[in-house]
Amino acid sequence: MAEWDEPIRKKGFILNFQTKKLQEVHDKHIIEAPRSVDCYEKLNTLGQGTYGIVYRVRDKLTSKEYALKKVKVDKDLFRDGFPVSCLREISILKTCCHPNVVKLKEVVVGKELEKIYLVMEYCEQDLASLLDNLEKPFTESEVKCIIIQLLRGLQYLHDNFIIHRDIKVSNLLLTDEGCLKIADFGLARTFAVPSKSMTPNLVTLWYRPPELLLGSTHHTTAVDMWAAGCILGELLLNKPLLPGKGEIAQLELIIELLGTPSENIWPGFSQLPAIQNFTLRAQPYNNLKTKFPTLSQAGLRLLNFLFMYDPKKRATALESLESNYFKEPPLPCNPTFIPSFPQHRNFKNAPSSSSSKNEHSSRSSSKHKISEMLENLKRKRFD
């Protein structure tokens, strides 16, 4: 064995400073250096997530397309270590493996230390763009298909102690085969029992539950379930269900739809921080039936459970999946029947060698216009 002061030249071993002996390093413990972002060819911008810009890229080796997310990193904060929000997103995505959760392929780096990119599977469209571009609303059969996939993804996350905290239509991606993927984990957190305090005002306003609007710092899986109810309502109406312009306006819309909460139906309601600052107007009626006049009793029952004021009584993802709403006609359609943008499929088809130059020029121009159109629609919807 080498002496303590001699250099270590034996590969596959590391010196244990406690025992002062060589210790074998197994392959499973060796982490390869990340690849460079130059391994990918940038095609176009897809959008902007909570903590970064997302691009459509092509792997130069395999020619396969991916989504590349450039993580926003403050140079000053980076001096104190790797950003916690980025670490959370990477660690959560690396542990997730489910058909309805977007998959992280790898983390790549740029030429500068703070340039970090996440390479994820590419999905051709997001639900927000679909809603903006559909000539006619989703059928109820299509709505059920989409919501079932969302609930399955949420069940997987919640079973693995993950709260997404930013469920909204622009964070739900769809492949050309109609498979829904939950994306953008920039605000996601792991949770434990009992729950720890978290920042209350992170969830996007239109999908924010009443407990967070009233200042609660205890986040549970019920936060995501309220958002799922908002998305179900949005798909059925073909427009946002609760499009408040501020927190007070958001509360007013919720009260107008569901009635005024009270200590009787929501124990602990009167102790929430924000409720001490103002008095909610009295509105004793639940107006879900008026809002959704053609929805079946099973559908209304599901919405009522998703919109329970008391987070402890709100429906879980598993309970929602077992709802009779998904078992009655019209039954959920096959995911491949979900409408999509045919233009997105054209993006993937490079012109053949026999194509004329005019055809190639026409396709390139069309792609550019379609890409600009989709980016403008996304900005218009959520600005």
Please describe the structure with a list of short key phrases separated by commas or semicolons.
383 residues; alpha+beta; Phosphorylase Kinase, domain 1; 5-stranded antiparallel β-sheet; 3-stranded antiparallel β-sheet; 12 helices; 12 strands; disordered C terminus
Question: What does it look like?
Answer:
With 383 residues, the protein is of the alpha+beta class. The chain has two domains: 85 residues, 2-Layer Sandwich (Phosphorylase Kinase, domain 1); 212 residues, Transferase(Phosphotransferase), domain 1. Helices cover 33% and strands 15% of the residues. It is built from twelve helices and twelve strands. It has a five-stranded antiparallel β-sheet. The chain has a three-stranded antiparallel β-sheet with strand order 8-10-11. It has a two-stranded antiparallel sheet with strand order 1-2. Helix 4 packs antiparallel against helix 6. The longest helix is centred in the C-terminal third of the chain and has 26 residues. The C terminus is likely disordered.
